[in-house]
Amino acid sequence: MSADRPNYITPAGYSRLHAEYQQLLSDERPKLVEVISWAAGNGDRSENGDYIYGRKRLREIDRRLGWLAKRMKAAKVIDPAQQEDRRRIFFGATVTIADEEDRTRTLTLVGDDEADAGKGLVGWNAPLARALRGAAIGDLRRVELPAGVIEYEVTGITYP
Asked: Is the whole model's pTM more than 0.85, yes or no?
């Protein structure tokens, strides 16, 4: 994610990041430090699996904590329920689109940290989301995807 783009996120998405941060910091990390201390007291650390695994896992947790802290600091929480212009597609909109074969799909535009294509959550900076931004019902939008260019018609827009 480039520094010039805001890191938009929904209130629920921010809550999930914060909950993971708190769980790692106040629960998982202290327990791991305890195990590492215990294992270190058992003598030879070079062949001590608990010690070696514990140190490796602690580095992973610390990296994740750093990443979460950075993402939360850069986050710009936007509540889609507060959107005033509900006739156009903006952050947080749930959109129904139809392709050239009239196959429809419904997706919600969320922050990049919340994206989950399997659940229909498309990151704000994904090609499809960028193409749909600002569109209204009836608008046609062309999206360049790895499979080629696809044209979608916006058939529905809702907000929470």
From this structure: no
